[in-house]
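Table 4 source record.
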Amino acid sequence: DMELQTDGNRSGHLLQNGEPVFEPQVDEEVVRLIAAQLAEIGDRFDKEIKTRLVNDLVQQFLNENLPGEEITQRMSEAVEGLVRAIPPDMEQEKATLVLAMVLTKKILNTMPSLLPRVFRTTVNYINQQLHNYIVRMVSA
């Protein structure tokens, strides 16, 4: 259950004697290669995301009466809509991950003050929808 934290560190579990226990390290070169692939795909997808979709999501995030689960659901729907337009030869989980990250970037470029809420929502979405995929990707 070790998870990568937002600062890039791994969380650990404590033994009874208080010593932290960490799972084996992942190959940093593999992580760099995966990141480079995701960035390349993200650059291609960046042009595909329409301004209207981004502005609609910005409005959803600005609505402070909307619960976090509802915002995550709306983001999920937006990403799923974008995934339907990806080339059939592309791995769907990888495309979903990249689209979520690119969409987050575009929302934050439009309204930087939304950083905490958008970041939290994106992390929740990725943890709910793509956690196992990410674990498999970095473990391979």
